């Protein structure tokens, strides 16, 4: 079956620090990979996606590259802001049934 | 363009009562998905519906849970005779009537607390 493993949090950073959240996956076939972000009390928002190997998804300064050889999709941002404080979820789907990781809570301090 | 709407945002029920969760998809979207998020866990797929049809309910518990998406009105997730283990956040997502069903737009969720 399909599954996603994310690095455990919580992660606490200072403003302008570099952020990496590791995500690895197990899947049959060639799934699409996603990062979603959940702000307190809100639903999930799609942050970025990649649909095939070596694709790089990017949005709002965040990036992630689909690495088939290492089955990974690590999320990175070069300089975080306080407003980036949220829970980040890695997910995959071969069709419509999204499989999510457990989420990583990120807190950015001024 | 209004996003996916869910109500209520918070719902408290006593054991044995019924819970009804509503989801209005984004305008123009005809595919609806329900997910459940237990504390400290990621979201788990429950059911996928199109108008008047259940396409995939492989993630739904076999008993007490049902879902519908009528021709008119919102999608409803119904939980009968709730138990404490049903306490969770329930998220609805929608996607347009195209082949890109993997890109789903989520609502704010309904947080169910069973006392």
Which key features would you list for this structure?
heterodimer, A: 110 residues, mainly beta, 12 strands, 51% strand, B: mainly beta, seven-stranded mixed sheet, four-stranded antiparallel sheet, 0% helix, globular
Describe this structure in words.
The complex is a heterodimer of chains A (110) and B (115). Chain A is mostly beta strands and 110 residues long. Chain A has no helices and 12 strands. In chain A, strands 2, 5, 6, 10, 11 and 12 form a 6-stranded mixed sheet that branches. In chain A, strands 3-9-8-7 form a 4-stranded antiparallel sheet, with no helix packed on it. A two-stranded antiparallel sheet of chain A has the order 1-4. Chain A is globular. Chain B is mainly β. Helices cover 0% and strands 49% of the residues of chain B. Chain B has no helices and 11 strands. In chain B, the strands form 2 sheets. In chain B, strands 2, 4, 5, 6, 9, 10 and 11 form a 7-stranded mixed sheet that branches. A 4-stranded antiparallel sheet of chain B has the order 1-3-8-7, with no helix packed on it. In chain B, 36% of the residues are buried. The model of chain B has no long low-confidence stretch (mean pLDDT 92). The chains are: A mainly beta (110), B mainly beta (115). The interface between A and B is medium-sized, with 23 and 27 residues.
């Amino acid at each position: 079956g399909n599954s996603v493993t994310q690095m455990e949090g919580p992660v606490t950073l200072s403003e302008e620090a570099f952020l990496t959240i590791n995500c690895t996956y197990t899947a049959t076939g060639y799934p699409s990979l996603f990062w979603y972000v959940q702000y307190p009390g809100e639903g999930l928002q799609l942050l970025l996606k990649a649909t095939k190997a070596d694709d790089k998804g990017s949005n709002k300064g965040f990036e992630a590259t689909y690495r088939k050889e290492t089955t990974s999709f690590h999320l990175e941002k070069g300089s975080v802001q306080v407003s980036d404080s949220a829970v980040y979820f890695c997910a995959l789907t071969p069709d419509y049934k999204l499989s999510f990781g457990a989420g990583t809570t990120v807190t950015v301090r001024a | 363009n209004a996003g996916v709407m869910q109500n209520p945002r918070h719902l408290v029920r006593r054991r044995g009562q019924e819970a009804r969760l509503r989801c209005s998809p984004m305008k123009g979207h005809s595919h609806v998905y329900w997910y459940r998020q237990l504390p400290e866990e990621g979201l788990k797929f429950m059911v996928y519906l199109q108008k008047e049809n259940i396409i995939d309910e492989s993630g739904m518990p076999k008993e007490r849970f049902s879902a519908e998406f009528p021709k008119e009105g919102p999608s409803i997730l119904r939980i009968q005779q709730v138990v404490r283990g049903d306490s969770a956040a329930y998220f609805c997502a929608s996607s347009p009537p195209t082949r890109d069903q993997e890109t789903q737009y989520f609502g704010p969720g309904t947080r169910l607390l069973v006392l």
